[in-house]
Amino acid sequence: MIFELTEEQQMIRDAARDFAQNELKSGVIERDEHQKFPTEQIRKLGELGFLGMMVDPKYNGAGLDTVSYVLVMEELSKIDASASVVVSVNNSLVCDGLEKYGTEEQKEKYLKPLAAGEIIGAFCLSEPEAGSDATSQRTVAEDKGDHYLLNGTKNWITNGGTASTYLVIAQTHPEKGHRGINALIVEKGMDGFTVGPKENKLGIRGSDTHSLLFSDVRVPKENRIGEDGFGFKFAMKTLEGGRIGIAAQALGIASGAFELAVNYARERQTFGKPIAQHQAIQFKLADMATQIEAARLLCLKAAWLKDRGEPYAQAASMAKLYASEVAMKATVEAVQIHGGYGYVKEYHVERLMRDAKITQIYEGTSEIQRMVISREILKD
Ligand code: CAA
Questions:
Q1: How far is the centre of ligand 1, averaged over its atoms, from the C-alpha of 372 (Å)?
Q2: Spacing, Cα 374 to ligand 1 middle (Å)
Q3: Whole-angstrom distance, CA of residue 139 vs CA of residue 250
Q4: pTM of the predicted structure, to 2 decimals
Q5: Strand pairing partners for 42?
Q6: To 10 degrees, what angle do helices 66-79 and 231-267 make?
Q7: DSSP string spanning 144-157?
Q8: In sequence order, what are the residues at sequence separation of 6 or more whose Cβ sits closer than 8 angstroms to the Cβ of residue 167?
Q9: Tens-place pLDDT, residues 260-308
Q10: Residues catalogued as catalytic
Protein backbone atom coordinates (compact mmCIF):
# COMPACT_ATOMS: atom_id res chain seq x y z
CA MET A 1 0.00 0.00 0.00
CA ILE A 2 1.47 3.33 -1.10
CA PHE A 3 0.17 6.55 0.46
CA GLU A 4 2.42 8.82 -1.61
CA LEU A 5 1.11 11.15 -4.29
CA THR A 6 2.83 11.13 -7.67
CA GLU A 7 4.85 14.18 -8.69
CA GLU A 8 2.11 15.12 -11.14
CA GLN A 9 -0.58 14.89 -8.46
CA GLN A 10 1.49 17.08 -6.14
CA MET A 11 1.97 19.65 -8.90
CA ILE A 12 -1.74 19.76 -9.63
CA ARG A 13 -2.56 20.13 -5.93
CA ASP A 14 -0.04 22.97 -5.62
CA ALA A 15 -1.46 24.69 -8.70
CA ALA A 16 -4.95 24.54 -7.19
CA ARG A 17 -3.63 25.83 -3.85
CA ASP A 18 -1.93 28.79 -5.58
CA PHE A 19 -5.05 29.52 -7.58
CA ALA A 20 -7.21 29.49 -4.46
CA GLN A 21 -4.85 31.84 -2.62
CA ASN A 22 -4.19 34.21 -5.52
CA GLU A 23 -7.48 34.23 -7.40
CA LEU A 24 -10.28 33.10 -5.11
CA LYS A 25 -9.41 34.52 -1.72
CA SER A 26 -9.50 38.28 -2.28
CA GLY A 27 -13.18 38.67 -3.25
CA VAL A 28 -14.70 35.68 -1.50
CA ILE A 29 -16.36 37.58 1.36
CA GLU A 30 -17.93 40.09 -1.01
CA ARG A 31 -19.14 37.40 -3.42
CA ASP A 32 -20.73 35.56 -0.49
CA GLU A 33 -22.39 38.69 0.85
CA HIS A 34 -23.79 39.83 -2.51
CA GLN A 35 -24.44 36.36 -3.91
CA LYS A 36 -22.12 37.14 -6.79
CA PHE A 37 -21.15 34.29 -9.10
CA PRO A 38 -17.36 33.96 -9.55
CA THR A 39 -17.55 34.43 -13.33
CA GLU A 40 -13.96 35.52 -13.94
CA GLN A 41 -12.53 32.91 -11.57
CA ILE A 42 -14.49 30.10 -13.25
CA ARG A 43 -13.26 31.27 -16.66
CA LYS A 44 -9.67 31.02 -15.40
CA LEU A 45 -10.32 27.61 -13.84
CA GLY A 46 -11.53 26.50 -17.27
CA GLU A 47 -8.33 27.75 -18.88
CA LEU A 48 -6.33 25.73 -16.36
CA GLY A 49 -8.24 22.58 -17.32
CA PHE A 50 -10.02 22.29 -13.96
CA LEU A 51 -13.51 22.11 -15.48
CA GLY A 52 -12.87 18.95 -17.49
CA MET A 53 -10.20 17.38 -15.33
CA MET A 54 -10.89 13.70 -15.97
CA VAL A 55 -12.05 14.01 -19.58
CA ASP A 56 -9.95 12.51 -22.35
CA PRO A 57 -7.79 15.18 -24.06
CA LYS A 58 -9.42 14.26 -27.39
CA TYR A 59 -12.56 15.91 -26.00
CA ASN A 60 -10.62 18.91 -24.65
CA GLY A 61 -10.20 17.44 -21.16
CA ALA A 62 -7.10 17.40 -18.99
CA GLY A 63 -6.95 13.58 -18.88
CA LEU A 64 -6.19 13.50 -15.14
CA ASP A 65 -7.23 10.95 -12.54
CA THR A 66 -9.91 11.15 -9.85
CA VAL A 67 -7.27 11.39 -7.11
CA SER A 68 -6.09 14.67 -8.68
CA TYR A 69 -9.71 15.83 -8.79
CA VAL A 70 -10.03 15.21 -5.03
CA LEU A 71 -6.82 17.16 -4.39
CA VAL A 72 -8.05 20.10 -6.46
CA MET A 73 -11.50 20.08 -4.85
CA GLU A 74 -9.96 20.14 -1.38
CA GLU A 75 -7.69 23.08 -2.17
CA LEU A 76 -10.36 25.19 -3.88
CA SER A 77 -12.93 24.44 -1.17
CA LYS A 78 -10.60 25.58 1.62
CA ILE A 79 -11.07 29.08 0.26
CA ASP A 80 -14.25 29.21 -1.81
CA ALA A 81 -16.85 26.43 -1.78
CA SER A 82 -19.11 28.47 -4.08
CA ALA A 83 -16.50 28.23 -6.82
CA SER A 84 -15.66 24.62 -6.06
CA VAL A 85 -19.24 23.41 -6.42
CA VAL A 86 -19.22 24.73 -10.00
CA VAL A 87 -16.05 22.72 -10.59
CA SER A 88 -17.57 19.62 -9.03
CA VAL A 89 -20.87 19.71 -10.91
CA ASN A 90 -19.21 20.44 -14.25
CA ASN A 91 -16.63 17.68 -13.82
CA SER A 92 -18.60 14.91 -12.18
CA LEU A 93 -22.23 15.36 -13.02
CA VAL A 94 -21.96 16.81 -16.49
CA CYS A 95 -18.65 15.98 -18.21
CA ASP A 96 -18.19 12.56 -16.64
CA GLY A 97 -21.76 11.50 -17.45
CA LEU A 98 -21.52 12.72 -21.04
CA GLU A 99 -18.16 11.11 -21.62
CA LYS A 100 -19.28 7.73 -20.26
CA TYR A 101 -22.75 7.52 -21.75
CA GLY A 102 -23.01 10.13 -24.53
CA THR A 103 -22.86 9.47 -28.27
CA GLU A 104 -19.89 10.66 -30.36
CA GLU A 105 -22.06 13.49 -31.73
CA GLN A 106 -23.08 14.57 -28.21
CA LYS A 107 -19.45 14.54 -27.11
CA GLU A 108 -18.40 16.64 -30.11
CA LYS A 109 -21.20 19.14 -29.66
CA TYR A 110 -21.52 19.40 -25.87
CA LEU A 111 -18.66 17.68 -24.05
CA LYS A 112 -15.87 19.49 -25.91
CA PRO A 113 -16.90 23.06 -24.94
CA LEU A 114 -17.86 21.90 -21.43
CA ALA A 115 -14.52 20.20 -20.80
CA ALA A 116 -12.66 23.22 -22.17
CA GLY A 117 -14.57 25.44 -19.75
CA GLU A 118 -15.99 27.52 -22.62
CA ILE A 119 -19.47 26.84 -21.25
CA ILE A 120 -20.69 25.29 -18.02
CA GLY A 121 -23.29 22.64 -17.40
CA ALA A 122 -26.00 21.74 -14.91
CA PHE A 123 -27.44 18.44 -13.72
CA CYS A 124 -31.20 18.59 -13.25
CA LEU A 125 -32.70 15.79 -11.18
CA SER A 126 -34.33 17.39 -8.11
CA GLU A 127 -37.93 18.53 -8.26
CA PRO A 128 -40.33 20.17 -5.81
CA GLU A 129 -41.62 16.68 -4.95
CA ALA A 130 -38.65 14.52 -5.91
CA GLY A 131 -35.55 15.28 -3.88
CA SER A 132 -34.33 12.23 -2.01
CA ASP A 133 -37.07 10.13 -3.61
CA ALA A 134 -35.58 10.59 -7.04
CA THR A 135 -37.66 7.91 -8.83
CA SER A 136 -40.80 10.06 -8.35
CA GLN A 137 -40.05 12.32 -11.31
CA ARG A 138 -42.97 14.55 -12.32
CA THR A 139 -41.20 16.25 -15.21
CA VAL A 140 -42.45 14.60 -18.37
CA ALA A 141 -40.60 13.96 -21.63
CA GLU A 142 -43.36 12.86 -23.99
CA ASP A 143 -42.18 10.83 -26.97
CA LYS A 144 -43.23 12.65 -30.16
CA GLY A 145 -41.37 10.57 -32.71
CA ASP A 146 -38.35 12.64 -33.68
CA HIS A 147 -38.36 14.71 -30.48
CA TYR A 148 -39.48 14.79 -26.84
CA LEU A 149 -41.90 17.38 -25.50
CA LEU A 150 -40.57 18.39 -22.12
CA ASN A 151 -42.84 19.78 -19.38
CA GLY A 152 -42.19 20.29 -15.69
CA THR A 153 -40.14 22.04 -13.04
CA LYS A 154 -36.71 21.37 -11.56
CA ASN A 155 -35.59 22.81 -8.22
CA TRP A 156 -32.32 23.83 -6.53
CA ILE A 157 -30.28 23.46 -9.70
CA THR A 158 -26.63 24.40 -9.22
CA ASN A 159 -25.37 26.55 -12.13
CA GLY A 160 -29.06 26.97 -13.02
CA GLY A 161 -28.66 30.51 -14.34
CA THR A 162 -25.13 30.41 -15.71
CA ALA A 163 -25.14 27.03 -17.47
CA SER A 164 -25.60 26.66 -21.22
CA THR A 165 -26.09 22.88 -21.25
CA TYR A 166 -28.50 21.09 -18.92
CA LEU A 167 -28.82 17.35 -18.37
CA VAL A 168 -32.49 16.96 -17.51
CA ILE A 169 -34.01 13.81 -16.03
CA ALA A 170 -37.66 13.27 -16.99
CA GLN A 171 -40.33 10.59 -17.09
CA THR A 172 -41.33 9.20 -20.51
CA HIS A 173 -43.16 5.97 -19.63
CA PRO A 174 -44.83 6.44 -16.22
CA GLU A 175 -46.17 2.88 -16.32
CA LYS A 176 -42.56 1.62 -16.22
CA GLY A 177 -41.62 3.59 -13.11
CA HIS A 178 -37.91 4.39 -12.86
CA ARG A 179 -37.26 2.26 -15.96
CA GLY A 180 -39.29 4.75 -18.00
CA ILE A 181 -37.10 7.73 -17.15
CA ASN A 182 -34.85 9.47 -19.69
CA ALA A 183 -31.94 11.89 -19.49
CA LEU A 184 -32.05 14.67 -22.10
CA ILE A 185 -29.55 17.33 -23.09
CA VAL A 186 -31.34 20.67 -23.08
CA GLU A 187 -29.82 23.90 -24.31
CA LYS A 188 -30.39 27.31 -22.82
CA GLY A 189 -32.46 29.29 -25.29
CA MET A 190 -34.66 26.39 -26.41
CA ASP A 191 -38.23 27.68 -26.77
CA GLY A 192 -40.29 27.14 -23.61
CA PHE A 193 -37.29 26.81 -21.29
CA THR A 194 -37.24 29.46 -18.54
CA VAL A 195 -34.80 29.95 -15.68
CA GLY A 196 -36.67 30.75 -12.47
CA PRO A 197 -35.55 33.13 -9.71
CA LYS A 198 -32.21 32.66 -7.96
CA GLU A 199 -32.39 31.07 -4.50
CA ASN A 200 -31.26 33.19 -1.53
CA LYS A 201 -29.21 30.61 0.35
CA LEU A 202 -27.62 30.10 3.78
CA GLY A 203 -24.27 29.07 2.30
CA ILE A 204 -22.40 28.67 -0.99
CA ARG A 205 -24.01 32.01 -1.75
CA GLY A 206 -21.65 32.80 -4.62
CA SER A 207 -22.99 29.79 -6.50
CA ASP A 208 -25.96 30.11 -8.75
CA THR A 209 -28.97 28.02 -7.71
CA HIS A 210 -32.28 28.29 -9.58
CA SER A 211 -35.49 26.51 -10.35
CA LEU A 212 -36.03 25.70 -14.02
CA LEU A 213 -39.31 25.64 -15.88
CA PHE A 214 -39.99 23.63 -19.02
CA SER A 215 -43.13 24.31 -20.99
CA ASP A 216 -43.52 22.33 -24.23
CA VAL A 217 -39.77 22.36 -24.88
CA ARG A 218 -38.96 20.38 -28.05
CA VAL A 219 -35.84 18.34 -27.38
CA PRO A 220 -34.51 16.41 -30.41
CA LYS A 221 -34.33 12.63 -29.98
CA GLU A 222 -30.59 12.71 -30.64
CA ASN A 223 -30.24 14.60 -27.33
CA ARG A 224 -31.29 11.57 -25.27
CA ILE A 225 -28.43 10.02 -23.32
CA GLY A 226 -28.30 6.24 -23.65
CA GLU A 227 -31.13 3.89 -24.54
CA ASP A 228 -34.80 4.71 -23.96
CA GLY A 229 -35.40 4.35 -20.20
CA PHE A 230 -31.75 4.65 -19.17
CA GLY A 231 -32.21 8.05 -17.48
CA PHE A 232 -32.55 6.92 -13.86
CA LYS A 233 -29.52 4.63 -14.02
CA PHE A 234 -27.64 7.43 -15.77
CA ALA A 235 -28.48 9.74 -12.86
CA MET A 236 -27.51 7.18 -10.20
CA LYS A 237 -24.22 6.20 -11.85
CA THR A 238 -23.31 9.83 -12.43
CA LEU A 239 -24.12 10.76 -8.84
CA GLU A 240 -21.69 8.11 -7.58
CA GLY A 241 -18.84 10.14 -9.04
CA GLY A 242 -20.44 13.39 -7.94
CA ARG A 243 -20.42 12.22 -4.35
CA ILE A 244 -16.62 11.95 -4.45
CA GLY A 245 -16.46 15.58 -5.55
CA ILE A 246 -18.78 16.78 -2.80
CA ALA A 247 -16.95 14.64 -0.23
CA ALA A 248 -13.74 16.40 -1.27
CA GLN A 249 -15.53 19.73 -1.08
CA ALA A 250 -16.58 18.96 2.50
CA LEU A 251 -13.02 17.88 3.27
CA GLY A 252 -11.72 21.20 1.93
CA ILE A 253 -14.20 23.24 3.96
CA ALA A 254 -13.11 21.33 7.09
CA SER A 255 -9.39 21.63 6.41
CA GLY A 256 -9.73 25.31 5.48
CA ALA A 257 -11.43 26.01 8.81
CA PHE A 258 -8.82 23.93 10.61
CA GLU A 259 -5.91 25.86 9.10
CA LEU A 260 -7.51 29.15 10.09
CA ALA A 261 -8.10 27.84 13.61
CA VAL A 262 -4.48 26.70 14.02
CA ASN A 263 -3.12 30.05 12.83
CA TYR A 264 -5.47 31.96 15.09
CA ALA A 265 -4.69 29.76 18.10
CA ARG A 266 -0.98 30.47 17.65
CA GLU A 267 -1.52 34.24 17.59
CA ARG A 268 -4.37 34.92 20.00
CA GLN A 269 -3.24 35.45 23.60
CA THR A 270 -5.38 34.86 26.70
CA PHE A 271 -4.33 34.48 30.30
CA GLY A 272 -0.78 35.46 29.34
CA LYS A 273 -0.12 32.92 26.58
CA PRO A 274 -1.28 31.95 23.08
CA ILE A 275 -4.55 30.02 23.27
CA ALA A 276 -2.78 27.16 21.44
CA GLN A 277 -1.03 26.51 24.73
CA HIS A 278 -4.32 25.87 26.53
CA GLN A 279 -5.25 22.21 26.64
CA ALA A 280 -8.91 22.99 25.88
CA ILE A 281 -7.82 24.31 22.46
CA GLN A 282 -5.18 21.60 21.89
CA PHE A 283 -7.79 18.87 22.35
CA LYS A 284 -10.09 20.53 19.84
CA LEU A 285 -7.27 20.81 17.29
CA ALA A 286 -6.25 17.19 17.82
CA ASP A 287 -9.81 15.96 17.25
CA MET A 288 -10.24 18.14 14.17
CA ALA A 289 -6.94 16.98 12.65
CA THR A 290 -7.76 13.31 13.26
CA GLN A 291 -11.23 13.53 11.77
CA ILE A 292 -10.03 15.53 8.76
CA GLU A 293 -7.30 12.98 8.04
CA ALA A 294 -9.85 10.15 8.22
CA ALA A 295 -12.15 12.05 5.83
CA ARG A 296 -9.23 12.65 3.45
CA LEU A 297 -8.37 8.94 3.39
CA LEU A 298 -11.99 8.02 2.63
CA CYS A 299 -12.09 10.53 -0.24
CA LEU A 300 -8.82 9.28 -1.69
CA LYS A 301 -9.87 5.65 -1.33
CA ALA A 302 -13.11 6.27 -3.24
CA ALA A 303 -11.17 8.15 -5.96
CA TRP A 304 -8.57 5.40 -6.15
CA LEU A 305 -11.26 2.73 -6.60
CA LYS A 306 -12.87 4.78 -9.36
CA ASP A 307 -9.52 5.21 -11.11
CA ARG A 308 -8.96 1.44 -10.98
CA GLY A 309 -12.35 0.79 -12.55
CA GLU A 310 -13.62 -0.99 -9.43
CA PRO A 311 -17.06 -0.50 -7.86
CA TYR A 312 -16.99 2.60 -5.70
CA ALA A 313 -20.61 3.54 -4.88
CA GLN A 314 -20.29 2.53 -1.23
CA ALA A 315 -16.88 4.15 -0.83
CA ALA A 316 -18.16 7.39 -2.38
CA SER A 317 -21.16 7.48 -0.05
CA MET A 318 -18.97 6.70 2.99
CA ALA A 319 -16.61 9.52 2.01
CA LYS A 320 -19.47 11.97 1.52
CA LEU A 321 -21.29 10.96 4.70
CA TYR A 322 -18.23 11.19 6.88
CA ALA A 323 -16.52 14.21 5.28
CA SER A 324 -19.72 16.27 5.43
CA GLU A 325 -20.16 15.46 9.14
CA VAL A 326 -16.53 16.40 9.74
CA ALA A 327 -17.06 19.64 7.81
CA MET A 328 -19.92 20.61 10.13
CA LYS A 329 -18.03 19.67 13.31
CA ALA A 330 -14.73 21.24 12.29
CA THR A 331 -16.27 24.52 11.18
CA VAL A 332 -18.32 24.85 14.37
CA GLU A 333 -15.15 24.22 16.41
CA ALA A 334 -13.19 26.70 14.29
CA VAL A 335 -15.78 29.38 15.07
CA GLN A 336 -15.58 28.45 18.75
CA ILE A 337 -11.79 28.70 18.80
CA HIS A 338 -12.04 32.15 17.19
CA GLY A 339 -14.54 33.27 19.85
CA GLY A 340 -16.25 36.56 18.97
CA TYR A 341 -13.98 37.03 15.93
CA GLY A 342 -15.31 33.78 14.54
CA TYR A 343 -18.79 35.25 14.40
CA VAL A 344 -17.86 38.09 12.03
CA LYS A 345 -17.27 37.80 8.32
CA GLU A 346 -13.66 39.02 8.08
CA TYR A 347 -12.35 35.87 9.74
CA HIS A 348 -13.86 33.50 7.12
CA VAL A 349 -14.84 30.71 9.52
CA GLU A 350 -18.50 31.72 9.84
CA ARG A 351 -18.82 31.45 6.03
CA LEU A 352 -17.16 28.03 6.05
CA MET A 353 -19.62 26.95 8.76
CA ARG A 354 -22.57 28.08 6.63
CA ASP A 355 -21.07 26.48 3.51
CA ALA A 356 -20.49 23.17 5.32
CA LYS A 357 -24.21 22.51 5.82
CA ILE A 358 -25.01 22.01 2.14
CA THR A 359 -22.56 19.12 1.91
CA GLN A 360 -24.93 17.12 4.13
CA ILE A 361 -27.81 17.89 1.79
CA TYR A 362 -26.92 18.00 -1.91
CA GLU A 363 -26.07 15.01 -4.11
CA GLY A 364 -27.99 12.94 -1.58
CA THR A 365 -28.58 13.82 2.06
CA SER A 366 -26.65 12.03 4.81
CA GLU A 367 -29.67 9.76 5.18
CA ILE A 368 -29.45 8.79 1.48
CA GLN A 369 -25.73 8.01 1.88
CA ARG A 370 -26.60 5.73 4.81
CA MET A 371 -29.19 3.99 2.61
CA VAL A 372 -26.63 3.41 -0.15
CA ILE A 373 -24.00 2.14 2.31
CA SER A 374 -26.35 -0.18 4.19
CA ARG A 375 -27.79 -1.62 0.97
CA GLU A 376 -24.27 -2.54 -0.12
CA ILE A 377 -23.60 -4.17 3.27
CA LEU A 378 -26.83 -6.14 3.25
CA LYS A 379 -27.05 -7.20 -0.40
CA ASP A 380 -26.74 -10.92 -1.12
N1 CAA B 1 -26.05 2.54 -10.20
C2 CAA B 1 -26.84 1.94 -11.11
N3 CAA B 1 -28.14 1.71 -10.90
C4 CAA B 1 -28.65 2.10 -9.72
C5 CAA B 1 -27.87 2.72 -8.72
C6 CAA B 1 -26.52 2.93 -9.01
N7 CAA B 1 -25.71 3.53 -8.14
N8 CAA B 1 -28.66 2.99 -7.66
C9 CAA B 1 -29.88 2.55 -7.98
N10 CAA B 1 -29.87 2.01 -9.21
C11 CAA B 1 -30.96 1.39 -9.94
C12 CAA B 1 -31.43 0.11 -9.24
O13 CAA B 1 -30.67 -1.00 -9.66
C14 CAA B 1 -32.87 0.04 -9.70
O15 CAA B 1 -32.92 -0.45 -11.01
P16 CAA B 1 -33.58 -1.92 -11.35
O17 CAA B 1 -34.94 -1.92 -10.71
O18 CAA B 1 -33.61 -1.93 -12.82
O19 CAA B 1 -32.66 -2.93 -10.75
C20 CAA B 1 -33.27 1.50 -9.81
O21 CAA B 1 -32.08 2.25 -9.93
C22 CAA B 1 -34.04 1.97 -8.61
O23 CAA B 1 -33.25 1.73 -7.49
P24 CAA B 1 -33.85 1.63 -6.04
O25 CAA B 1 -34.99 0.65 -6.06
O26 CAA B 1 -32.71 1.37 -5.14
O27 CAA B 1 -34.47 3.09 -5.86
P28 CAA B 1 -34.95 3.79 -4.56
O29 CAA B 1 -36.00 4.72 -4.97
O30 CAA B 1 -35.25 2.81 -3.49
O31 CAA B 1 -33.66 4.59 -4.02
C32 CAA B 1 -31.88 6.15 -4.01
C33 CAA B 1 -32.62 5.04 -4.76
C34 CAA B 1 -30.48 5.64 -3.78
C35 CAA B 1 -32.50 6.55 -2.72
C36 CAA B 1 -31.92 7.29 -5.01
O37 CAA B 1 -33.24 7.73 -5.22
C38 CAA B 1 -31.06 8.46 -4.61
O39 CAA B 1 -29.84 8.40 -4.75
N40 CAA B 1 -31.71 9.56 -4.16
C41 CAA B 1 -30.98 10.81 -3.89
C42 CAA B 1 -30.96 11.64 -5.12
C43 CAA B 1 -29.87 12.64 -5.10
O44 CAA B 1 -28.72 12.35 -4.77
N45 CAA B 1 -30.21 13.85 -5.51
C46 CAA B 1 -29.23 14.87 -5.64
C47 CAA B 1 -29.61 15.81 -6.71
S48 CAA B 1 -28.29 16.30 -7.71
C49 CAA B 1 -27.52 17.58 -6.89
O50 CAA B 1 -27.70 17.80 -5.73
C51 CAA B 1 -26.56 18.28 -7.74
C52 CAA B 1 -26.21 19.64 -7.30
O53 CAA B 1 -26.92 20.58 -7.55
C54 CAA B 1 -24.91 19.89 -6.61
A1: 9
A2: 14
A3: 30
A4: 0.97
A5: none
A6: 50
A7: -SSEEEEEEEEEEE
A8: 93, 94, 97, 98, 121, 122, 123, 124, 183, 184, 185, 186, 225
A9: 999 999 999 999 999 999 999 999 999 999 999 999 999 999 999 999 9
A10: 363
